[in-house]
Amino acid sequence: MPTTVPQTRPLVSAGVMGKTDGVHRVLIVTGMSGAGRSTASAALEDLGWYVIDNLPTAIIEDAVDLVCHPARATERVAFILGRSGPVDGAALTPILNRLATKYTVDVLYLDADDDVLVRRFEGTRRKHPRSLLGVAEAIAEERAALAAVREHATATLDTTELNTNQLRLRIRDLFDASSLPATMRTSITSFGFKHGIPLDVDLVFDVRFLPNPHWEPALRPQSGLDAGVRDFVLENPETTAFLNQLDSMLTLLLPSYAKEGKSYVTVAIGCTGGRHRSVAIAEAIAERLRGENVVPALNVFHRDIDR
Known about the structure:
Layout: E1 25-31, H1 37-46, E2 50-53, H2 60-67, E3 76-80, H3 89-99, E4 104-111, H4 114-124, H5 135-145, H6 147-150, E5 155-158, H7 164-175, E6 185-192, E7 203-206, H8 227-234, H9 237-259, E8 264-271, H10 277-292, E9 297-302
Parallel strand pairs: 1-3, 1-4, 2-3, 4-5, 6-8, 6-9, 7-8
Helix pairs in contact: 1-7, 4-5, 8-10, 9-10
């Protein structure tokens, strides 16, 4: 049976509340230091966002009103918070609530496992923004301070297993400037259980019950994107039954999420290593959903295909 991982519903919902004349989309990028804010900033600039970095929390609201004035042409502005100092989570919460009454507001929260964050700081020899403490203690204090902010996240990205290029791709999938602000973005992600379940997903389905191409010598070097593995997986009668059931479930759930104002939904498909079965199933279900036009904006991401 598939496993469902519940996500906290965001308190700030993009596009639900009233907003000023024109299309003004505000993105707040925050999260744990070392989780990828610099990469996110560069990726958003490449996508055409107007990016403002290291702005103090206290003046964010005034800055948004200035940049998003109806007389200005700026339609998408992103604020990167916390790169040079700690974010004041208690002060940011009421600011987000007020902004949501005037603009389309999204909050991207970047996270990673504590041990990975420690290794990243040790590898780069950069100081943690809470540098008066040791790295491990600083991470624990920052995580506690940002707990309230995370509750507002309309999208959460776990970068534990992502390299820089993969993170840039995930940012592109979520925040491509050509997408309509009111369109719910849906991602189908394949992964390997032995590398850990992604933290930034809404629904998780386990396909380890299917025959494993890994044990076929001719198929082992291939991936679920190759015809041999794809046919091996999809021609199994259990696969057809599973895809039919999953298709029916997602056809019901995804439009309902969009109707409720959810901005981003990620469906994760997992097998043992994340290279064969999960990849083939993720591609197959995405093809079905696109053909049925269940959701207008859908992308597929294979986290562990090259591991």
